[in-house]
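Hi, here's the filled form for the chain we discussed.

Project: internal
Contact: R.S.
Residues: 173
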Amino acid sequence: MTNLYILVGVVIALVIVVSVLKLKFEGGEEEKAKYQYKKRAFFMTRAEHECFDALTTAVGSEYLIFAQVHLPTLVDNKIKGQSWRGAFRHISEKSVDFVLCDKSYISPKLAIELDDKTHERPERVERDVEVERILKGAGVPLLRLENHGRFDPTDLSKKIKDTLTNNVNDRAN
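And the returned structure, exactly as it came back:
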């Protein structure tokens, strides 16, 4: 009787091993998820689009304007003496709404954040302070714009020039 139990146990173990191997070699075990995606109807929110249009008028042909720019595109995380992977992970999910770049070298000159009510949430305030610290440390000036529904190109042009001028003066001191 004991031999019968041993034989049944061996047969069950073989069936399990064969099943696991079959799944593994046929790709059935832990296949990568095949997520579905669809095209967004709009690249920007209405407020971002209105701001973009006003920025286009404000800077004319002086700068290129890029939208939804992730921080790793703006700042280098490979600094001697620090973990570049850790530094990258710290900035990889952060972005700014717009970046003005010179036309010759496409070099970032100014980052712009459009602040709406979401920027009042405690976790967002903390994130904004950290983004400001990162950009300041990297030498990228930041202009914060409050979203009041309308954007005046003349006012934007003045704010951009003032921010860039103040950044040059800060670096000189």
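Let me know if anything looks off before we file it.
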